[in-house]
Amino acid sequence: MFIKICGITSEEDALLATALGADAVGFVFAPSARQVAVDRARDIARRLPAEVLTVGVFRNELPDRVVNIVHRAGLGAAQLHGHESPEQSREVRSRVPRMIKGFFAIDPGLSDVASYNADAALIDSPTPGGGEVFDWSLVENVPLSGIPLLLAGGLDADNVHRAIHKVAPWGVDVSTGVERAPGEKDPVKMRRFIDAARAAFAEVRMRDRVEASDVPYNWEDDF
Predict the structure, then answer these.
(1) Is 173 a catalytic residue?
(2) Which of 39, 75, 161, 206 fits as disulfide partner to 54, beta carbons 3.0 to 4.6 Å?
(3) Cα separation of 109 and 133, whole Å?
(4) Contact (Cβ atoms closer than 8 angstroms) between residue 125 and residue 94
């Protein structure tokens, strides 16, 4: 199980997210109400535990700029969340520690996910950042070829349990669903979301008869 809290704009929110159990935090560099400056993301990332994955989120950006920002901010991964081609995605992946490729639920690129050379594939609503839930059944026949699946798009504490049971993803990604205002996280919503997600992941493991290990989960084993 892997939980990413995206749209982080403050050190307080980042530290709280990780204290509550988030495995990753995301910084948006694309035009957005949650967009952060590179220097601010760098300063926040420096304060986080080493085991927390820090992710820069980009949309339709040139590969050179993506790579430059990831390294300037000292981040652990790039997330390409636009209409980047397989060639652009592979170029970014060859120059950063890890890369997540985001797809919209009706994206034609989902027919050949493996060609992007991503460490994980994130599937989002056709209107990312809008807090809209999409039809989760669209994920069922995606040929992931063993690539970890991150589910996003309108998730919150009230529906993440149902989403995990329906899709059985490797992880979940949330932004709007744990906010009280754009770019400002709500501590209660974050706690409820993380608790609900972890409970659902545990239930799915039991349902699928996968033995839970006594060793604490390490997302790096899969990612």
Answers:
(1) no
(2) 75
(3) 20
(4) no
